Amino acid sequence: MANPNVETVNASSGKWMLGVAVLLVVAGVIGFYALAQQPSYVRGAALFGGIALGIVVALVSAPGKDFIGFAKESYREVRKVVWPTRKEAGQMTGLVFVFVVIMALFLWSADKLIEWVVFSLVLGWK
After folding, report:
1. Which residues are CB-contacts of 17 (< 8 A; sequence separation ≥ 6)?
2. Do 18 and 59 form a contact (C-beta atoms < 8 A)?
3. Residues with Cβ < 8 Å from 44, sequence gap 6 or more?
4. Which residue ranges does UniProt annotate as crossing the membrane (predicted)?
5. Residue 13: CB partners within 8 Å, gap ≥ 6?
């Protein structure tokens, strides 16, 4: 028996529409350069028109609709985030700086200790 929760996806139509969108953008760019003798507003309109039509076709396709749904859901999730106050952000930044200084001192002292052990005790250099 077939599972009613399984969604069948027709990927070929989405890929086809994305291909058309890419071709529209490429046509806009080619039109921009092909109309080199025309005024700049005509060339800009060709470029902008190709890009705009390509974006519209891409957003109307199945992958484009999925992307729009993903973007809306992401925006909803970002609105749920509890952002730190200015005071909390400053305190955490200060804590990070203190930790960085402590780690720098630790690494410097470890480096000097290893240098002293290797060069003074092992190799006998002074």
Report:
1. 57, 58, 60, 61, 62, 64
2. no
3. 32
4. 16-35, 41-62, 89-110
5. 61, 62
Q: What is the distance between the alpha carbons of residues 100 and 91, in angstroms, rounded to a whole number?
A: 14
Coil, helix or strand for 108?
helix
Which three-class secondary structure state does DSSP give residue 37? coil
Q: How many CB atoms lie within 10 A of CB 76?
A: 9
Q: With beta carbons less than 8 A apart as the criterion, state whether 21 and 57 touch.
A: yes
In the structure encoding, which two tokens stand for residue 4, read together?
A: 């009613």
Indicate the pTM of the whole model. 0.55
By the 10 Å C-beta count (0-12 exposed, 13-18 middle, 19+ buried), 14 is classed as middle
End-to-end CA distance of the chain: 83
CA distance 4 to 12: 22
